Task: structure prediction
Amino acid sequence: MSKPIVGVIMGSESDLDILSEAAKVLDEFNVHSEVRVISAHRTPDVMTEYATSAKDRGLKVIIAGAGGSAHLPGMTASHTTLPVIAVPIKRDNHGHESFWSSIKMPPGTPLATMPENGAKNAALLAVEILSLNDEALSKQYEQYRQKQHNSVVATDIAVQKDWRSILKS
Ligand code: RP5
Result:
């Protein structure tokens, strides 16, 4: 079995429902990922070891999700030169603290911050990055985008024809 090239990490098991969406998308593209629970606050030593060794272990991109103070994405980015994509976790009882914590990185340490709970786009951005050096993956991704395009065009035609019956169904 090939080695994982994307790390999907999250601050808590309670984030798994969101972050698993990223892993599922990567599976669809046959991109080998590893999924881990690593907390910046509860296991800071594990986070440091994970981020500092990630490149040598063969990872190419890291997707990091966390809620609350959300230090995991930013601190992971600080410990590696790999591209790190943040997924701010937003629950109904949360404010937007996780998003702001992720998007406000200081100049010099980039963190590609997705919308709140945007795990699917995080995986697609990872696929775009990996596609730069993988022709087969690039083709697969172009097909994915074309399929999405065709689906919207088909919906548009149906809506133009009879939007009232679509609304009822
Ligand atoms: C963050 O605190 C985690 O990423 C999670 O989103 C949030 C709550 O964690 P639990 O108390 O559910 O473990 O560090």
User: Anything to note?
Assistant: The chain has a mean pLDDT of 97.
